[in-house]
Amino acid sequence: MLQSKVFIPTLKETPNDAEIISHQLLLRAGYVRQVTSGVYTYLPLGHRVIQKIEKIIREEHEKYDVVELMMPILLPADLWKRSGRYDTYGPELFRLNDRHERDSILGPTHEETFTEILKGEVKSYKRLPLHLYQIQTKFRDEKRPRFGLLRTREFIMKDAYSFDVDQAGLDASYQMYDEMYAEIFDRMGLNYRGIIGDGGAMGGSDSKEYMAVAETGEDTIVYSDESDYAANLEMAAAYFDKKENDEELKALELVETPDVKTMEDLSSFLDVSLDQTLKSLLFIADEKPVLVVVRGDHDVNEVKLTNYLSADSLELASDIETEEYTGSTPGSVGPVQLKSDVRIVADRHVELMKNVVVGANQEGHHYINANLNRDMPAMEFEDLRLVQEGERSPDGKGRLKFAKGIEIGHIFKLGTRYSESLGLEVIDNTGKSNPVVMGSYGIGVSRVMAAIAEQYADESGLVWPKEITPYHVHLIPVSMKDETQQALAQEIYTLLEDAGFEVLVDDRDERAGVKFADSDLIGLPVRIIVGKKAGEGIIEFINRQTKEKIEIPTSEILENVKKLLEV
Predict the structure, then answer these.
(1) Which pLDDT score is estimated for 90?
(2) Which of 58, 61, 535, 546 sits most deeply, having the most CB atoms within 10 A of its CB?
(3) Residue 544: CB partners within 8 Å, gap ≥ 6?
């Protein structure tokens, strides 16, 4: 392909609003352009990368008999109302009306649609298991689109769905996709981890996320330095040693704590360690008050709390709501003498504590030496906190470490949530009708592109792995006015194309420095420069990743390209 015929608008300077390396370089190298906030055009080079990613996905799905189809983007809101997600999904859901005032949405995911389609066609267990997928544009109205392709309002996603007769079938399907995803991400050359994840708005039980390791990632990966334990920070646990506390109980005492606003202020004012205080936060879960209690040096994990309460919505109570339910301000809230209509849940570490400092539900006052059962009402205990780096791994092996990551894939065991609400049932071998057991399996195609750019970029530009690169070879004749260089470039082009390699020829009438700088930005694995030694049949062969340069005769080009690309 002649570069003069391809639309590749490179930029010398980095746009001011591009915060991370993938966003900066995909813009500078002419792969993408922003149309509006969170919405991008994939220019020719970017589109070719997306196609390479999709090709790998399709080939691996084909191996496992997962069949591709295409669902609509515009969906009737009725399906989501019947599943219950229309009201609970949140403001990220694009809602719209047609000329007849019928409610519709732009699909962020397609569990309901797949379920509805199968409901009219699959009646017997003999048709199951069934695996279907699509690669399609999705929409989520992000409050703050940022980081280029990592957080957008319109994005490309692969979503697959499994349909099984029973839980054992779902377990097998889930394991199959886990193995498939490892093969997909390995082929793409990604450095990634499979970790315990949260189902969030998807629902269901077991969930696994696939994280590309990157310092610019918005997610935190928690992993053991001595075992294979790994989880998203939102789901991570630490080792819990429920040992008895034989400390003697002391008398409860009310003390003044003026101008104390934070747990650190309280610890300093009373000269007690943070781990001997209790932090109490009032939340509103599905319009009902819930007081959450954790140790003073711990933080509430709202994902764990939401899952424990099985809540569709969870928000920290406002000052007005806090006063209504506790009679106090947020800084002085506690479980002692709390109104009986407030549910109290506590992190499991609280159960081990004695003689603690806790809010008195009187502004500017706390209790010291408060104790469970004697001074505080009955509580529910559960793991409700965020883990901290350096804690012991929950399997008892090693310590927890933190790393940043980009979520590139996610698999879920949905169970019967959607099949029950939408009526997808099959007749089993005994003649009984049962809801189909479902799973959902996603890959963020456009996110994968950004994640690869993050992991492979260097100070000069992008560096694409061979499976993903838009072209294999960047062929650069230094002077388009030199007939010898042009003739040799054409000979090399024909040689490589006939061997099955994709070649981009820089036929532009530009200075050599411009061509080389653009080539660095574009990041194709192999660069071949046809220059002053063209008459001798000698070219410069460059490995873009290592920047190693060698001069070789034309007769050795094919051998070196095959070696570098491991063909």
Answers:
(1) 87
(2) 61
(3) 463, 474, 520, 523, 524, 525, 526, 527
